[in-house]
Amino acid sequence: MQKKHQGFTLIELMIVVAVVAILTAIAYPSYNEYIRRGHRAEARAGLLQAAQWLERAATATGTYPLTAAFPANLKAIPNNRYDISVVSDGATFTLTATPKAGQTGDKCGNYTLTNTGLRGANGTTTGDIVTQCWGK
């Protein structure tokens, strides 16, 4: 009697490899966007935290702190994917979160927030891009 060998054929193995490749091609970009969206949320939170600090300082002193007085602990986001900078003349301020590292190719680009509460993303303060970037 002959023993029947059990196992995978090369064709079956190639079909499995093709299916895994197709699933990876679909899933990997979605996963990257999901991760970037999480980093964007941290950037927005950092901007709001910095704006609150500026508002508290303005309440105490009557004017917004100048750019040089902005504390270093508010300039960096914990995930190290954005840097926050401020431009302040005492009467107004504009906060900017600039992407860096793996976040540089993000569709939202730079986030901005002004003393009037005007939000911006990717160089604009109007349109769907601002709604999409600040809404998620």
Question: Would you write up a description of this structure?
Answer:
The protein is α+β, with helices and mostly antiparallel strands and 136 residues long. The protein has one domain (40-135). Helix content is 44%, strand content 15%. The protein has two helices and four strands. Strands 1-2-3-4 form a four-stranded antiparallel β-sheet. A hairpin with a 4-residue loop joins strand 3 (111-114) and strand 4 (119-121). 21% of the residues are buried.
Supply the key terms:
alpha+beta, 4-stranded antiparallel beta sheet, 136 residues, 2 helices
Low-confidence stretches: none
Q: Work out the helix count.
A: 2
**CA-based gyration radius:** 24 Å
Largest sheet: 4 strands, antiparallel
Main sheet strand line-up: 1-2-3-4
- Alpha-carbon distance between the two ends: 67 Å
Helix/strand structural class? alpha+beta
Mean pLDDT: 90
Brief account:
The protein has helices spanning 10-61, 128-135, and strands spanning 82-88, 93-99, 111-114, 119-121. The protein is α+β, with helices and mostly antiparallel strands and 136 residues long.
Note the topology.
Blueprint: H1 10-61, E1 82-88, E2 93-99, E3 111-114, E4 119-121, H2 128-135
Antiparallel strand pairs: 1-2, 2-3, 3-4
